[in-house]
Amino acid sequence: MMSATAPAAQRRELRRVAAATVIGTTIEWYDFFLYASAAGLVFGKLFFEPAGAQAATIISFATVGVSFLFRPLGAFLAGHFGDRIGRKAMLVITLILMGASTTLIGVIPTYETAGLLAPILLMLLRILQGLSTGGEWGGAVLMAVEHAPDARRGRMGAFPQIGVPLGMLLASGVLALMTGVVSPGDAFLEWGWRVPFLLSIILVVVGIVVRRTVEESPVFTEIAERKERSSMPVVQLFAKHGLLVLLAALTFAGNNAAGYMTTGGFIQNYATTPLAEGGFVGMERTPVLLAVAGASVVWLICTFVAGVVSDRIGRKKTYIIGWVAFLAVLFLLFPLVNTGNVWLLFLGLALFSIGNGFTYGQQAAYFAELFPASIRYSGVSITYAIGAILGGAFAPMISAWLVAATGTSTSVAYYIGAVMVVAFAATLLLRDRTGIDLGADNEGAQQRGHFVWQK
């Protein structure tokens, strides 16, 4: 029989879990988006300038994408050990790896002082960021969702999800502070860009302290006590659920490709490249960064609302709302950006952020409900990593190439729209499993009934 103090204790633990997951993912994605924004704003000039202006931009965005290729390796490793030794331990390890690699980016030399060694070092550190990100997300969302009551999984799962727009907001805000106040103009290129990377070490210490206060996921604890941990969770995942991984990854690919218009640095670069250097808009860096930060607030709100709404109407219906919202405004985004007016830029990004939130907020609960308990960390981490490669990995680079090749941003809208349509179709093929029992006792039901053509 449950004691009178148990509900209060459970509520306190849920608050600790919510705080730990949102703080940790905010720090993780601050680091990740900081690199992407810097790639769009300054890395082309600092590390790849000998290639020429347009080529340097494309190469700089390619380094953003290369890290995605290492996400599956990070997901494989974190998934394997997360299903073997627990969710909590992997969360601390991935946070330390991300923080260390980000801080080191703040001290590496540029091409001017170190030649080819500079971009090589930059690439290696970006790869470490990719490994960390590949393992971080799965652990964070499972800690949140597996602690949650069945009727509040979407809401609890939204906490690590809102860490992503919070990370974007923090990265854009710090960069705006540096470009507009602390180190404007040439000072930002000389030294100001380094400061946001160096700040990561402080954030990581805070994140580790918070995360160590959280108890292990109750689902993993139950599996461990029963000694039912899978010895090869990744092998079991692909042997039994390969098609599920592919379709679920495609649902994320649509969100990721669209989201990386801002989080991958493309819009920042597109809007700020001077007209004299072949740009189309030529706005100042600081107002663009502030507009991105403002749109991140809209993204954050819609992400949390989507998680809450999905508990009431189901994950699948919430996704459909998101895809419709995305497609409705897709061809308005670039005309608004092309005006060169910061308020219209913000309007375009804010409208875009509605679909971004409603195809993201419920994803933590959605992915957790797709996979059996014994291989769940591997399932959600690897699916997320594959979706990121298919969708967002090279979206900024492809977009930059399309603009250079066609001379118009409309080609980018068609490209993103095509990825969204595929993701929409994949969403329709998967069955809504909102509220399914996630416990170790229910592995049989968790193993089947994922697709609309199955009973």
From TrEMBL:
Keyword annotations: Cell membrane, Membrane, Transmembrane, Transmembrane helix, Transport
Subcellular location: Cell membrane
Pfam assignment, any one: MFS_1
PROSITE patterns in alphabetical order: MFS, SUGAR_TRANSPORT_1
Gene3D superfamilies: MFS general substrate transporter like domains
Sequence ranges assigned to domain Major facilitator superfamily (MFS) profile in this UniProt record: 17-435
Chain segments annotated as transmembrane: 20-43, 55-77, 89-108, 120-145, 157-179, 191-210, 231-253, 288-308, 320-337, 343-361, 382-406, 412-430
InterPro entries: MFS, MFS_dom, MFS_sugar_transport-like, MFS_trans_sf, Sugar_transporter_CS
Domain of life: Bacteria
Topology in the lipid bilayer: Multi-pass membrane protein
Protein name: MHS family MFS transporter
Lineage: Bacteria, Bacillati, Actinomycetota, Actinomycetes, Micrococcales
